[in-house]
Every structure is written in C-alpha cells, then in structure tokens.
Amino acid sequence: MNNTRRALALALVTLAGAAAPASADPVIAGPATPDELAVLAVGGVNTTHAARRADQVALHRLSTTDGAYKGRILFPSDTLTKSSNSLNAPIRNAGLRRSADGRFLLFNGGRGAAGTSNQDILNATTVRVAADGTWTDQRLGTAYMTTGEGPVGTVSLDGTRKWLGINHNTKPIATIAEGETELTQVGAFPTPTVPVTSIDLVDGSLVVTGITGVSRLPGGLPTAQNTTTPPQEFIAAPIALDATFLDTDGVAGADTAYVVRDGRGVWKFALDAGTWKSRGVVGGSYGYVAARAVAGAIEVYLTTANTAKLVKFVDTAEVGGDVKTTGVSTLAYAPARARYTGLAFTPTGGFPADGTAYPATAPAMTASATTVDTHIGATTKGSVTLEVFDPNSADVTVTATSSNQTILPNDKIAISGTGAVRTATFDPIATGTATVTFTARSGDDAVTATLTLKVSPAVADPGGHYYSGPVDLSAAIDVGGDYFLGISDEVNTVHLFKKGVSGGSLAQWNQGFPGGETDFEGATRFGNTIVWSGSHGNNRSGSARPERRFLAFQTISGSGATVGLEWRNSYTRLWQQWKDWDASNGHGLGANKLKFNTATVPGLLPNAPNGFNVEGLTMAPGSSSVAWFGMRAPTITGADGIERAVILPVNNLDKLTSDSVNAEFGAPIFLDLGGRSIRDISKNAKDQYLISAGTGDTDDSLKNWALYTWDGNVDHQPQMVKELPTDEARIGAWEGIAELPTDLVAGSRVLMLADSGDTGLGKSYGQYVTIGEPIAGPAAVTGITATGKPGALDASWNAADRATQYYVTVKTAAGAHAPGSPKFVTGTSASFEGLTAGTEYTVQVRPQNVATRAVPGTPATATPTQGARVATTTTLEFQGSNILGEVQKLVATVSDPNARGTIQFFGSGQRLQDSFATGFDPSVGANVYTHTFPVVNGKAVIDITDARGAGMTDLQAKFTTANAENYLSSESAVAPTLFEYRPKQPWAEIVSITGDRVVGSRIAITVKLGGYKPSELWREVIRTEFNTRLNGAVNRTRLVGDTQETSSGYAALNEDGLATIYTTALAAGDHRISVQVPGYSTGYVTQWTDEIPVTIAPAGSPAPEVKPIKRPAIAVKLSGPGVTRTGQALTLTAKLSDPTLTGTVTFFNYSTALGTAVPVVNGVATTSVTNTSPQLGIYARFDPVVAERTTTAGATSQAVPLLRAATDLPRSGTVATKTTLAVSGSTGTVTVSPVGGDAFAIRDVYGYAEILEGERVVGFAPTRVGVATIDLSSLGAGPHTLRARYVSSDETRSLSSEIVQTDAPAPVGGSVPATLSLTLGAPATFGAFTPGVEREYTATTKATVISTAGDAALSVSEPGHLTNGAFSLPQPLRVELGRSAWSGPTANEDVPVTFKQAIGANDALRTGAYSKTLTFTLSTTQP
C-alpha cells in the first residue's frame, strides 16, 4: 500500500451580525416564454449511477437562444423518481413530450424512492405537468410489464387519454385513460423484435422509433384492445432512437423529420412524392431531439448520448432540401451527477419554476477530439477545439502541458479564444506520441481533459498530409465542399474526411457491409447512388478470395459535412459473368483472350499481366448506367508489342439491384499507359478523366507512378501530365482520387490518396498535385545492328527523339531470353555474353520515356561463335550451428572466380530456399523466397535458418554456368548433416483474469512469457492463442476477443512478454482457460499455461465469488527405447507436486492426445505409447476430479522435446549436471548446471527438482532454464538437514544429479501487513466572523497516524479560500501541521492540525456559512 487518502470536510461556519435574509422560500419565476425548452434532468441524489436505480427527476427550463437556466420543477425524490443508468451511458426510458394541444408535458417515472431499483417498471407511472406548474401522475398497473421492460415515453392529445411506447418485443404500444388502472395493448409486432425507443403523435397517428427505423400505427388513435395490428415502417433508419416531425411547406401535414440514430448522428428526411427520403446527416452521438420551424430555417435541439449536454444546430436548407448547417453548438451542460435526457418545448403559456440558482456544478471542459494526428512541419497545424463551461463564473483560464517535451514542448502549444470556445494548436518538433493535459481553472475549482497527439515524420511534399484511421485508403468519392468519402482495402468501412487536413475521419458507415476483407478498390457515383467495388481477385499471397467479388451499393444524401449514407444492396455475380463472357468470346477478341479463366486460380498473384484485379471505377461519359471498371490486371499485349491497360464496361450498373439480375458487358477498352496499370480512374462534371497509373508488374513496363488525362473517347489515348513521387516509406501506392478540378488542364490541382498500408506509418497519405502539360512519347528507333563474337554478341542502334532509355531483348528462335536479356540501356549500344555458339539470336530495341513506349524498331540477328571452355569444381561449407533455430548458412564456392552462373542448394534432393530473401519468379508471376543464387566472386550464400526439419539431411550445391561457352557446370559432394532438435524452453502463465464474471461483461485475460523475451525466440511477433474448455469439454475452444486485433482469439506478446485479450464471449458455466505460446520456430518448443478455472454467471445474475485457486505443479519423465528410436515403446510418467490430489493426467504430443487419460495414484500417472513420429514435443495436463475443478488449476507441464529415428542418430553427447541448493527464509532455490557440454547445454537441462529431508520430499517444482524455486513453509521450526535432487525428463539429454546435504534453519516468526492509516479528529470551526474588525481566527483538530512503512509523509491539499455559495473570503486559509515526516514506523501518533483565517477590517463578508473541504494525504515511498 503506497498511499492512503482521507478527506476532512471543514465546517468553517460564521454567523454575521447583520440581519438574516427576508425570506428563505424559493423565488417563483415568471411564466416561460415560447423561446424556452423543458429538459428532463435525471439524477442528483445518488452518488453513483447504476442501471434501473431510481434517482431524482427535475424539469429544467432553458433558453433556446443561449441555454440560459430559467429554473426548474424539482419532483420529490422520496416518491417520484426515474431510473438512471451507469454514468455517461444513455437512458432510453426518458422521453419527454408536449401534448398535442400544447398544454401539458408528459413523461414516465416510478412511484419509489431514490436508490431503489426497477421502480419505473414495478411502480410505473405516467406524469402530466400543466402549464401552471402543477402535476399529477397515473399508475400504470402491474399486469402489462415485467422486469426488463418499461415505458419509453408518453403522448396525449389533451392530457386525458395517453398512449405509451413500451420497451417490449411484442407489445410496443399501449393506452390508458383517466381513471383506468391497467394498460391496454393497442399495437403489436407479429414476431419478437427489438423494442421501440420512443413514441410521438404525428398527423393524428402514433409513431414509434426502433431498430429498423420509424413506424406508424395505422388506424388513427386506438382506444380498444388490439394485439395484432403492427406498426408500418415508413422511414428506414436502422438503430433509430428518437424522431421529431415538422410541417415546413405550408401544406397541412408533416413533411420534414429529424431522426436520431445510435452513434450515427441525426438524419434529416423529407417527404417527396409520398416517400420519405434522406436529406443528409449532422454527425455526432445524440439521445433525444426536438425541433421547430422559424423564419427561413429549422432549429434542432438535441441531448447528447452521454447525457451531459444540450446542443443545437440550425438547418437553413430550402424546404425539402439537403440539410445545411454551420455546425452544432452547445447550449447547456447538465448539473453535477444529473443527466439531460428527453426534451420538449414548454407548454403554451409556460410553467412556473423554482427560481433557485443553477445547481452547484464544477467547471466542465470537453475537447472536440481525444486524438489529434499531425506531422512535422504541417502547413495546417494540428488543433483541437475546447469547450469550456462554468455556470458560476465567466473567468475561466485554460492551460496545457505536454507529457513529452522532446516531441511537443509546452511552448509549442498555443491556446487562443475566450469564453466558451478555445482552440489549442500544436507545433511538434519530433515524431512520436505525447499526452496533452488541458486544465480549466475557475477560482479554486479546476477540471482537466486529455488528448493524445500522434506526430508523424515530415510529409514527402508541402502539399501532403495524413489521414488517420484506415491506413490504406484505396478509393474515394468527392461529396462537395471540403469533404470526401474514402474506403480502405482492409476494413469494410466508409469514412468521411476533410480534404487536405491531417486527422481522423469525421464519420463512418459500415451498415450492410460484410465481415472480413472485401478489398474495396474502386468507387463511383451516379445520381444519389454510390457503388464501391471489391478487387474481385486473389490476395497478395495468391490465395483465392471469393469474398472480394463484391459490389456495395449505397444511397447518398446531403453533401459536405452533412453527407449521409444508407445501405441499398450488394451484387456478387460480376466475376463469374466476366469469366463466362471471356470464355465464350462475348467480346469478339477470341475465347479466353483476357485470360479470366486462369486469373484467380490459387497461387496466382492479382497482378499484371495475368492476374485479375479491379482497382478503379467510374461512369462512362454522360451516362448514369454504363460503368467503366479500371483494371490493375490483366494487361494485354497487342501485335505491336505494346502492353495496354484494360477497362471493362458494364452497361447496366444501375440495374444491378440484386444477384437475380444479369450484368451486360460492353467491348473492352485498351489504353497505353506505358505498361502501367490502372490504379484509379475518376472524372469531373465535364467528362474529363484522370487516371492514376501504377508501376507495371512486367519486366519491361515503366516503374514510376504517373497521372494521365483522357477525354473518354475510346479511339483516343490518354496523355501523361504528371510523374508522381514514388516513396514506399512515406507515401505508398497512389490508389485514390479524392477531388478533381472543374477543368483538368495544366496548372489545376487534384487531391490524390495513397494506400500507405506497407509504409508502417499507421495512416494514409494524401497530397494535392498540380497537373502539368502533356508529355509526348518517344519516336521509333532505327538502325538496329547485331554482331556475333565467341559466346557473345554486340548490338547498336540510332538514337530516337524524346527517348530516355531503351529496352533491349536478345532471344532465340524459340523465344527464350539470352543471358542478360532483357536489359534497359540509356546509350545506343549493348553487349551480351554467355550465349550459345552456333545459335541465332534476334535483337530487338524499343525506345521509351517517362510517358510511354514506342513500337520496337526493325530487329537484327547474329550468331555467336564457339570459345574455349574451362572445367569447374564446387565445394560446400556449412556455417553456424546445426541446432534448429540457430543461424545456419551454406556457402558454395566455385573454383574459378571468373565463372558466371548460379548456385542451387539441395537438402536430400529437395531444392532449398532462403529463409529471408525473396525475388520475382516469372514462372509463377509472383515474389517467392529465393532458391537460385548468383555466383559473385566465385561464391554464393543461402541462409537456411528455420528452413529445415530435425534429422539427417544430405546437403549439396549445384553450379549452373551462365557462360557455357567458357565454363562448365559442376556440383559439390553430398554432405550428410544432422539438424539437432535442442530447442529453448520458455514457459508461460496466466497472471491475471479481471472483470465481472457475468455473461456479456468484458473480461481481460493476461498471459506472461517466462525464461526468454519474445525477440529471443522469434524474429517476428509471437501471437498467443487463448482457449477455454467449458463444463468439462474434452477439446479446447478458441476464445474470441472483442478488439479487431484479437477477434481471431490471438493476442501478440509485447517485448515484456505480456499479452492481453479482452472478451465478452464467455458463455455461462465453468470454464478452464489456458493460453498456448505457439512454436513459430523449431528453435523453441510450444508451451501451454496451466488451465485456470473461471465460473461465469448468466446475464443479469450477480457476479460469482472469485475463490482462491490451488496451483499444483507437474513435470514429465520419459524412459524406454522409444526415447531415441521410432516405433519403440516410450514410457511417459507425470509427477504432481501435491500427491494428495486425485484426478487424471492426459499426455500430449504438441496438441494431439497420446491415448486416453491416466488416473493419478499418489501423485503419479504413468502410461506407455508407441509412436513413429521422429520429432515430438510431449507434455502432460492434470485434470482434477469434478468436485475440485472450480478451485484447482489444471497443471500443465513444460514440453519435453525428442528427436528420434529408426536407428541411433549421431547426436551430441549426454550432459552431466551439478545440483546446488540455497535456502533463504521459506524458499529453497535449486540450481542445475551442465557440466561440460557445448554452449547450448543448458537447453538439455529440463525435468524437475525435489528437496528432501531424509527420504521425505518436502518440496517439488519443475526446473525452468536450470532453476527450480520451491516453497519450504511446510517445514517446522528448528534446524533441518536438506538435500536437493534433480530428476531429468530425458536421461539421454542430461543426467540426474543430487546435492547431499544443506543445513538450513526453519523459518519462524510473523509478518506485518503493509499499513498506512490516517484518522482525522472532530471537524474544526472558527466560530462567528465579525465584519469590519481585523482579526486572525484559529481552529484546531488532530490527525492520528499509523504507519509500518520505512518512511511516511503527511500533506494537505491547497487550502485556497473559504467560500459561502458564490462568495469567497479575500484572504487565504492557512493550515499548519505539528509533524509532516517520519523516517520509520509509528503507531497511533496524534499530530496537531491548526487552521488560521485572517479577516481584514475592509473584508466584505456575506451572511451565511463559509466552509472548505481539504484532503489530507499520508503517503510513503518505502511500503
């Protein structure tokens, strides 16, 4: 215990000599004006908020202009209350409505005292408040609702008969009239559905909101029982919470609605030809809404979803138009511990209200963001808006500090503005992350808010910036103004961003999108429809991904910041139809001309020329039907040798409303982009197209990114107008076009986006790019000549205008490239060596520049002559350790260093590949691990670390000459080599399981790796696997985490060896939770933790008691001929640390059980198996008997590694060991050290250690990296003669050993728990202050201190000034402590505490009591 705090409330009260106030009764405010709102405020009595717990309820009157507080009606907290919820969580039973005749306000409550539970269900009542401030309520009976249900709101025409929305999945609407005692059902859902969330009266009908949208109950206002008529949905708005309707066009009847959607803002809808259509959205998270039409606009009022604020925006759109607003502003904050929920306009004529001051509230401050992303040297600095609120003072100062002065010094934070809105701007000087803490201070009160500033490196261009959130934006739609929509090719979510400004998304939409990765790459818009296209191809490793064959259709409303998206439909048949169309020659180019039949076979990358990958999507000129799909792959090479990009027209995109509709295709369009592929394509309103052309995937394509403009005429070719920067570290791939100018001409700017997923930046790059003048392609080349020489030829040609380099090929008649072909040359000649004598070669030259390539010139031929040939020899050297997991390399040496060629390495006849190096293999069209190595200075090297399995391997190197006319090929002798399996043996344990153990609650499970750091085991991230066995199940089931990173049941170990998964997926019952550390490398052995019992209670039940867990240990010993020979008997013996335990032991080879469970007898379980596997990892798991499974862990041993063969292997020798014992207090430490052996001998020391007194085993533990720690607290007082014994798990690897004797005193004594205790005496009082008389007043109390710490300090918070309501004493309070520091323990020591208050003769004093609460702190640094 490091710190104990106690708070002392000082009742520092004085009675002034002046007369008391004339009256202590509340002042009654005048009637409300039409410019006032009534807001339902819940809370204020309970100190904590909890679900269904009753709390105080009040109606606050607030100005619609500035949110000014006008008073309240406070209802009696002992008889009329409302259920609250956990703090900052929404309250969904708190609708407030005004009656249709404008005379009353109505809401639901409970007839129960604050602090009780479920009153709004068990004692539900509906409350009616009249314009004169009087109120009545009507009980709702007990027959209709049960626990978990309840009313969400009440509406009425005139306050007599009422209709209620009910939180019930089949009985959503009920009614009750004056004098009735039970509700009557008047509406029903035909099948159970999610309950309604609010109710209203609209045009004489009952309207409810719910999970799918807004629905109307047909048939007017029913009064008789009706259990069959369902509400009819007329506005589709998923997850709708509340709605309000207005008449804005002068024609009777509502024509405009604002619908709050959970976490998705407030959506505007307008009635258009009998259909309600979306008209945009105002972002944010809200709870309840009210609105009214004013001159030329609509004022919309909302309470926030966290129930903390009342906000407002003004919609100035034309009648029925898209929402148009300058933004949301805050009108008021809820008082301390209260919640702002339902709201309505005050009754006609207003209502009187208690005019007491606004409830005492500390300053409040909120930041517009919790994270700000920026970069070094940002033109537009990263900033955040701070909203500051203090109802008791206008004098609020705001300061800021940075947690990391290296990244963001305090003087690089600028705060501007006054009043309620301040702006903080950041100018960081280094990359990294800093926490910024803002402090708003008003007098003695202060409040803080924090945000995280993430700073990226300087951008590649002054026009650059970063978009955080999705790291790989790959398609975009301009939605007008300063905003665009972007989508990632990794996560199926649409994001709204502000153009050209570093930062996160402002809104997101994922409704309707499938799970997984659809790899969205293209987007287009026609009318109010947006289409997002998946890539339709394989993934980057060549795996077939059918889920990418997907089109997503959305309906868009609004524009700019108020854009709204609604899911419309998907389409998944396009790929198969394309494939059939190509196979049947539907395009007239020849069957399978576009290569679709093989484009997505497993193993083929989605790249040019042979893959399939949609990367762009746009509409044809002037069309709202014909869509052009821009392809990254395939590319098609024509008869002229020019490789062209492909556009696939779909002529009826607007008709693809379901998979039952067939797509119609147009003729393919082929564009010369210099061998590049289309990575995005977009057009402006004038049908001028911009193409982002990506680096080509074939050996002769241009490797720089470029922008092309095009007029959309299929008979014309695009023109290159800009070379884009290629920067894989800071930019990535240019895959999105977010904004186009009105005219695509030189000097105009476009906003480009990059898929930056491979940069490691964790965000996407954006940049404004200026279009240049068109760049002409090169002229054709002439004068190609070729001359043969011994084993070589020389080629030359004439320079071509505008060419910057030449692509030169030398091929045989069969089309095979000669050595060194193809090559790029900047001059006008080239030489090729290593050619076959007597073979005719054709030389071809094609000029190119940054824009494109010309048609090749007229080829020339030449035949090399024969030269002398030299024999070679190849030798092979093994470098490194032959132990798996260690660095292992093979070095091949060719006898003549002038011999050119390649080396391939083989293991037992199989070609080896490098563990790290990769390269492009044209035979498979993909990057693969390197398996062919060039000879450089006579040598070639391969790294085979982690590439070989355990056992004997015949190693060999084979040299293939590249200049066969001069040198002969050769191969090394075969070298038999043993790869030994002597892995590192880490261990793992579950160190914490936290959270309420109830279904649906979030539980955190943390595992820790022991023995090694993760980086010492594997060069990449190690992801641990979390599992459970429920209610005695035999097999483990993987747990699902509730974060994206852990949704597969895996969590990565950090460098400290810790990994945590957060899950809400644990079902009710008895779990046994374990974690596996998988073996990513044969350099360490897979390990499992013990199984920890966890009981999960059903939802709604109390959390079960967390009982102490017994944690036995277990170890395995192997014996018999099967230890070294496959197919021989192998005896498995498991030993438990506690021989009294009963249960069974199951033995495993990695994750496969070896036979059935074996009973434990006197702490030992033994079985025998025969297994033919050469490499084993054997461990044992103990399962206690059923009665003890909730209190006893399932001990799991460390795995024992074995390497065997049919005959004995030439393994390293058995290691002798030395055992030592050290005793300290009640702990014995047994250390087992190898005697002799190699540098890896400690890996052979695994088994268990025992400490014995005589022949009695007094302690047992597995050895971990040669050490076992054993508890000796069971020994009695007095001296003991102990010995330690190491028992090897595998006597063929290390020998058991024993230390004969250690004398150790038994631990005896007691323990003192860490204690810090601070008790304060009676409250101190100064008595009465006398106005006009200078005097110092004194008051005393005491603080009683108990401390067992090595040091202690007593301190007190800043005294400040005594206050009386809004008044403070001019001079500060002083506090003096009789003692404040200790250098050792103390007990029941009384410390005098003296308070002093000076009063000046001219100090103004206010009638009443002055007081102050101070916090005294007793702390230590040596607990």
From TrEMBL:
Keywords for the protein's UniProt record, in alphabetical order: Glycosidase, Hydrolase, Signal
Q: State the protein's name.
A: DUF3616 domain-containing protein
**Xref: InterPro entries:** DUF3616, FN3_dom, FN3_sf, Ig-like_fold
Q: Which Pfam families match?
A: DUF3616 (PF12275)
Name a biological process GO annotation.
carbohydrate metabolic process
Q: Name one GO molecular function term.
A: hydrolase activity, acting on glycosyl bonds
Q: Does the keyword Hydrolase apply?
A: yes
From which source organism is this entry?
A: Solirubrobacter phytolaccae
Q: Where is the Fibronectin type-III domain?
A: 777-868
Q: Does the keyword Transcription regulation apply?
A: no
- Position of the signal peptide: 1-24
